[in-house]
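Progress report, Aim 2. The chain analyzed during this reporting quarter is listed below.
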Amino acid sequence: MRATVHPSKLNGEQVAPASKSSMQRACAAALLHKGDTVIHNPGHSHDDLAAIDVIQKLGAKVELEKVVKVNSNGVNPMGPTMNCGESGLGIRMFTPIAALSNSSIWIEGKGSLVKRPMNFFDEIFPSLGIEINSNNGFLPIQIKGPLQPANITVDGSLSSQFLTGLLMAYAASEVYDVEIKVLDLKSKPYIDLTLTVLNAFGWKVEHTNYESFRFLTHAPLSPVIEYTVEGDWSGAAFLLVAGAIAGPIKIKGLQLDSTQADKKIMQALASAKAHVTIEADGIIIGPRHGQINQLAAFEFDATDCPDLFPPLVALAAVCKGVTEIKGVSRLAHKESDRGLTLQTEFAKLGIQINLEGDTMKIIGGSAIQAATVFSQHDHRIAMACGVAALCANGPVVITEAEAINKSYTDFFMDLQQLGAKVDIQ
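Predicted structure tokens for the chain:
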């Protein structure tokens, strides 16, 4: 798919997409919950659909309506394979969960996922009684449980997603005299989200400074649990930046008290001097005094929220001065090597990005050039280029733009509804 985004002014209202982080965790909890679960406001991105497919492969019965209804008796694999599509969270979260079974299961993925390191499982699983054969630390991997919870120490510096899977598997095992110690945990807010979902279902997990996690006894889980998926701060970050540079617009459906890491986009927007108004039913955002030349370069630490790099680069591109964003080391193992990809694709738009160790410097304020860019099969790169195009001096063509389906299927349609001129081929 080729999406051509023309320079445009935006106005109107838009509801944030459903959070795939919340949705995928809800699917995992619904699988582990022995009973019925009703998931309200479900997402329909490719990652969301992959999570639904996985829990069915692992034994859950699912009805897809306006809500998602799940009936489960725990992990009971229906076959010898589990495929998580291109979802990094899915593969890292569901693999420990699948290991609760004593079945031999091949764990598979596709696209960029086959190039992302999974050696964490090779290092940890043997100490949990799980047999594992991997492709030198990459997919596909074969596992055979059952997982036997034990005191372990894990490295949290690469991703918090591995820890999410372990926390869910341990909680569902109902073994209470064990501890998971974590070294150098990154993306702590994502673990907050995991704990929020576990708590909503009735499991109790406590932590000490994110360095030690313990599992507490709890009341029996309700036979019927209802869970509502939050609005997605990750996807909405692109809409909020679009509003800041081409609005004003109103974004609805976001929880200001959310534990989602990407809620920190609000701090960056304030630092850039965007005009933000919080109302009871949404967030109104636009350039201060209606002029994008009022937006200023800013400093931001994205170590705990690396998915914000792409929308922040789109914002920085129109801010006068040099913006500095820390946390580049978190970008290497995404759908693309996002630091290099952002540098390459935004160079085509006339924006210079320098990578200096763990810091990205974006030289903003010059004209964004009309160009043809390549999504690199990365959903967030496609959306970042689409947002920057709103302030370009001509149309920006994004090739392989279908990458957005991974997380935000309706992104270009939502831009259109806000008044952007977008041509899809």
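The chain has a mean pLDDT of 95. Residues 81 and 106 are 5 Å apart (CA to CA). These observations will guide the mutagenesis work planned for the next reporting period.
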